[in-house]
Amino acid sequence: MSDRDRPARRCRSATRCRALFTILAVCACSAAAQTKPAPFRVLAIAERGGLHRPFVDAAKAWLDREGKSDFSVDYIENTDTIDETLLARYSLFLQLNYPPYAWTPVAARAFRASIEQGSIGWIGFHHATLLGEFDGYPMWQWFSDFMGGIRFKDYIATFVSGTVHVESASHPVMKGLGSTFTIENEEWYTYDRSPRRNVRVLASVDESSYTPPTTKKMGDHPVVWTNEHVKARNVYIFMGHHAELFQNPAFVTIFHNSILWAAGRN
Ligand SMILES: [Zn+2]
Fold first, then answer.
1. Packing angle, helices 249-262 and 53-67, rounded to 10
2. Domain for residue 178, yes or no?
3. How many angstroms does the Cα of residue 257 sit away from the middle of ligand 1?
């Protein structure tokens, strides 16, 4: 075949090639459709309005983009509708911005059962460790135990930046992170004791790195951990005050990893 012939031969076979390509593409799509797991459902609880509204709004926008065809999120603003029937519809419970008090008794029972039996995954941020007496409510002792037997003590109201050390680099939640990362302008909660003896610590903040320095310290200071004494895959992530966290690649990576792991997808 001469060089001059080639374009003509290509032209004649183009239709056939397109047909073949279409068939292959359809086959590839069908195969992908067969192997791709069905989207999973996430139930997220976040209080309406308040100081943390920008964080919640940023989280919703991020979750919309992140979910795509992998998961969908339904939002609630209080625990009134939570019972075992509702929780059974979801793979993951996201405590985006909600404290461990002011839950209805039915919601508290259903949540505890789901976590203990492992029928749902859980990710809690920030307010999930407001453990103590708040707003006239007693401390939920089971939730305190779930969080490693801690009680909320104080917070850094002046906000400081800090270096966080990854402690369990092999855990799926820590995948893709370096050995340290920085969290800017955070209000770092302190507790009456470190949860370390009751949980697996995934990351902790180095209090000596606080900028500007502050005397409000607790010593051993875990900030991301999981409780391996319950069946549910669970992750507590302390950070969750500012919307700017969604500009921080380390925070976004932890959130992304936590969703997939806690929902049983990796
Ligand atoms: Zn806050």
1. 60
2. no
3. 22
